């Protein structure tokens, strides 16, 4: 029997056992132990499948399923596993700043042609703004069609008013000032990716203006640092299945699967909007740019899975950069486009903010005309920029927007009940959208699959 046939049989058996376990649980309440045993047998079969593939991606998927099952079966135990996901996130966060700094400096100063860097920046910003605007429109249409907030009974959250008062509205000048670092060490410590990227760009421009004698040692240092950080990523990724599984176990154990029933309409509207954005926006963009679809899906799967399970864009950033370089996007483009996209190309976050803002108004019984909604969307174009790549940070933006338009806070605290589940989807879309952006810009620059892949990156993708 061939390897593909064996793997299909394993997947089929796992699906059958898992389905049987779910059916028995709901049909015969007295057979809960048997149902649990069947589902864990299914997970064991999936583990055999992952062991045959000998790559990290299937193990991450198995860890997600096992974590969700553990959170459902033993929630009291599962919530204590968060420490392992926090360890994984801490390790990843140590990678991000030096990786972005080193790759950007090498990409810009080593390229030699600063005009091409400026051209690439203009193209990237144009692409980002078009895509995020479309995401806002799709979110706006989706929530107006579903009217998920209409008729919602709003409980008053204790301390809601005080929380809102602490969040100041975000203005365009605040955002512009926030882009530029005042202390690079503070920017690194606070995880401000865009500030690190801006510092790296100016550092690289200054470095490019020096003589080869002065520039050479710094360039070699940065080249070595980027290779070390990619190798560091490969090492940390061995811990990814444990971190991802623990994150899923905590989420399900803390919230329970029953949360889907309470605000299912909003959740369904959101995920249908995400699917619509992928099918009617990202897919046509990839086809127009002649990006190999199957190859791209394969390249982005691991980073997207990490983003979905951890709900943290930052956790997926190193692997996303590594995957896109292995896919054929030159490092100088990857190191510029993806970090910039983390502040300017948050497709999932902007789509969510459009939906959530109108949901708040609907739930509060406040009618907003299309003109008012469009003004709110224009505000979100600015306030959605620079959202930190950490779980639920977008809620701060939502609170600030509510303050700007004098919307009540209670519906926002209702959304908190399912925000973790929505955060998974929007974070995954953010990562996939930024990966596609790097491939599109590489095509636009005529540089796609024109440069050799680093041996360290190639090694990491084979693990």
Automatic annotation (TrEMBL):
Compartments, record wording: Cell membrane
Transmembrane segments: 9-27, 33-51, 58-79, 91-112, 124-145, 193-211, 232-257, 269-289, 351-370, 390-418
Biological-process GO terms, alphabetical: dicarboxylic acid transport
Classification via InterPro entries: Na-dicarboxylate_symporter, Na-dicarboxylate_symporter_CS, Na:dicarbo_symporter_sf
GO MF: symporter activity
Membrane topology recorded in Swiss-Prot or TrEMBL: Multi-pass membrane protein
Protein name: Sodium:dicarboxylate symporter
Organism: Granulicella tundricola (strain ATCC BAA-1859 / DSM 23138 / MP5ACTX9)
